[in-house]
Amino acid sequence: MKLSKLAQASVLLGAATLSFSGFSAQETKVEKVVDAGEKITQSANQSQQRVDRISDQIQSKLQQFKTVNKEIDGLNVYNKQMQTQIDNQLKELQQLAVSMEQVSVIERQVSPLMARMIDTLAQFVELDVPFLPQERSQRIAHLRKTLERADVSVAEKFRQVLEAYQVEVDYGRTIEAYTGLQQVNGQELDVDFLRIGRVSFVYRSRDGQQMGVWDQASKSWQELGAEYRVDITKALRIARKQLTPDLIVVPVAQNSAE
User: Fold this and answer.
1) What is the CATH number of domain 82-171?
2) Mean pLDDT of 19-45
3) What pTM was estimated for this model as a whole?
4) CA of 189: how far to CAs of 22, 192, 203, 210, in Å?
């Protein structure tokens, strides 16, 4: 059966309409798929951002953890060092406690020793050549007085005693000149004393006319002749640093040991 042209046109139009409707439906489905994909992509981006933030936080916490661990290790080492020092200080305190207990014992032993040393020094000065008698006796008296003082430490007392001994030792190797009074033929004269170590102790009157030398054997003064006047005057000037050291001739009295 043949259709008229109008019928054919109607069939074609219907087919086109159906075809267009099917195409529109497919396009709608594609748009929905694209929208869903975009939403999934956005969700994935948001999830990735959250993951990145969490990762950054984890890295920051991890770094803080490592830093704290290093500080803890350093503190452990420091604590060990401090503990070692504390242990050593405790040992030192124990040693100091023992030493303090021994100090009282040492003081009880040192004090009598110093007293004997002062007595020995006094006897030595009494038996020695009689130069600077007042100065030396005052030094010994000062030592005795210091020994009785409670406000002076034992160490300081012992130091002063040793210093006095050192002064006496130095007298034996120095030359010295000083002025003083001397009994000469029943008269008290103002004289110059000259000490050369302990080997020669002489005096000379201010006018240079009278001279004498100490004789340790007889514990007395012996008169000197005029032949010594020049050398004694020269020696006095050397002792006062008025002349440079030079060769001099002075009398040497023989002591009792010789």
Assistant:
1) 1.20.1270
2) 71
3) 0.59
4) 158, 10, 10, 10
